[in-house]
Specification:
Number of helices: 2
Distance between the termini: 82 Å
Number of strands: 0
Order of helices and strands: HH
Oligomer: single chain
Helix content: over 70%
Radius of gyration: 36 Å
Protein backbone atom coordinates (compact mmCIF):
# COMPACT_ATOMS: atom_id res chain seq x y z
CA UNK A 1 0.00 0.00 0.00
CA UNK A 2 1.12 3.53 -0.66
CA UNK A 3 0.76 6.15 2.05
CA UNK A 4 1.37 9.86 1.59
CA UNK A 5 2.93 11.97 4.25
CA UNK A 6 3.67 15.71 4.41
CA UNK A 7 7.16 15.34 2.98
CA UNK A 8 6.04 13.34 -0.07
CA UNK A 9 3.18 15.77 -0.73
CA UNK A 10 5.57 18.72 -0.59
CA UNK A 11 8.06 16.97 -2.88
CA UNK A 12 5.27 16.04 -5.30
CA UNK A 13 3.96 19.59 -5.38
CA UNK A 14 7.48 20.92 -5.86
CA UNK A 15 8.08 18.60 -8.82
CA UNK A 16 4.82 19.73 -10.44
CA UNK A 17 5.82 23.36 -9.98
CA UNK A 18 9.24 22.57 -11.48
CA UNK A 19 7.63 20.87 -14.51
CA UNK A 20 5.38 23.87 -15.07
CA UNK A 21 8.38 26.22 -14.88
CA UNK A 22 10.26 24.03 -17.36
CA UNK A 23 7.26 24.16 -19.71
CA UNK A 24 7.18 27.97 -19.55
CA UNK A 25 10.92 28.19 -20.21
CA UNK A 26 10.62 25.80 -23.17
CA UNK A 27 7.74 27.83 -24.62
CA UNK A 28 9.80 31.04 -24.37
CA UNK A 29 12.65 29.36 -26.22
CA UNK A 30 10.27 28.08 -28.90
CA UNK A 31 10.80 24.46 -27.96
CA UNK A 32 8.23 21.80 -27.37
CA UNK A 33 7.23 21.78 -23.68
CA UNK A 34 7.78 18.59 -21.69
CA UNK A 35 4.86 16.39 -20.76
CA UNK A 36 3.27 18.11 -17.80
CA UNK A 37 0.04 17.02 -16.15
CA UNK A 38 -1.83 19.74 -18.04
CA UNK A 39 -0.60 18.82 -21.52
CA UNK A 40 0.28 15.15 -21.14
CA UNK A 41 -0.77 12.91 -24.05
CA UNK A 42 -3.79 10.65 -23.55
CA UNK A 43 -2.99 7.11 -22.50
CA UNK A 44 -5.40 5.61 -24.99
CA UNK A 45 -6.25 7.42 -28.20
CA UNK A 46 -9.42 5.43 -28.89
CA UNK A 47 -11.25 4.68 -25.66
CA UNK A 48 -14.62 3.81 -27.23
CA UNK A 49 -13.85 0.09 -27.42
CA UNK A 50 -12.71 -0.08 -23.81
CA UNK A 51 -16.20 0.63 -22.49
CA UNK A 52 -17.63 -2.11 -24.71
CA UNK A 53 -15.02 -4.62 -23.57
CA UNK A 54 -15.57 -3.76 -19.91
CA UNK A 55 -19.33 -4.12 -20.37
CA UNK A 56 -18.92 -7.50 -22.05
CA UNK A 57 -16.58 -8.64 -19.27
CA UNK A 58 -19.04 -7.62 -16.55
CA UNK A 59 -21.98 -9.24 -18.38
CA UNK A 60 -19.97 -12.44 -18.88
CA UNK A 61 -19.06 -12.57 -15.19
CA UNK A 62 -22.67 -11.95 -14.16
CA UNK A 63 -24.02 -14.62 -16.52
CA UNK A 64 -21.46 -17.13 -15.21
CA UNK A 65 -22.39 -16.32 -11.63
CA UNK A 66 -26.12 -16.56 -12.32
CA UNK A 67 -25.80 -19.88 -14.19
CA UNK A 68 -23.77 -21.35 -11.33
CA UNK A 69 -26.33 -20.16 -8.81
CA UNK A 70 -29.18 -21.50 -10.96
CA UNK A 71 -27.66 -24.98 -11.17
CA UNK A 72 -27.08 -25.02 -7.40
CA UNK A 73 -30.67 -24.00 -6.68
CA UNK A 74 -32.07 -26.57 -9.12
CA UNK A 75 -29.96 -29.34 -7.54
CA UNK A 76 -31.13 -28.34 -4.05
CA UNK A 77 -34.74 -28.27 -5.25
CA UNK A 78 -34.43 -31.82 -6.64
CA UNK A 79 -32.93 -32.97 -3.34
CA UNK A 80 -35.81 -31.42 -1.36
CA UNK A 81 -38.39 -32.97 -3.69
CA UNK A 82 -36.74 -36.38 -3.30
CA UNK A 83 -36.70 -35.96 0.48
CA UNK A 84 -40.42 -35.00 0.44
CA UNK A 85 -41.30 -38.03 -1.71
CA UNK A 86 -39.23 -40.31 0.53
CA UNK A 87 -40.98 -38.98 3.63
CA UNK A 88 -44.41 -39.49 1.99
CA UNK A 89 -43.51 -43.05 1.05
CA UNK A 90 -42.33 -43.76 4.60
CA UNK A 91 -45.59 -42.53 6.15
CA UNK A 92 -47.70 -44.36 3.56
CA UNK A 93 -45.81 -47.58 4.35
CA UNK A 94 -46.25 -47.07 8.11
CA UNK A 95 -49.98 -46.41 7.69
CA UNK A 96 -50.26 -49.55 5.52
CA UNK A 97 -48.57 -51.59 8.24
CA UNK A 98 -50.87 -50.04 10.87
CA UNK A 99 -53.95 -50.77 8.70
CA UNK A 100 -52.81 -54.41 8.18
CA UNK A 101 -52.31 -54.88 11.92
CA UNK A 102 -55.77 -53.45 12.57
CA UNK A 103 -57.34 -55.97 10.19
CA UNK A 104 -55.57 -58.91 11.74
Amino acid sequence: MFFLNKKSLILGAASIVRLEKDAKIAEKRGQKPPNTPKNSPPLLKNEKGVALLMTLLVVTLLVTLILGLDSTVRRDLRMVNNLRDDLKATYIAKSGVAAARALL
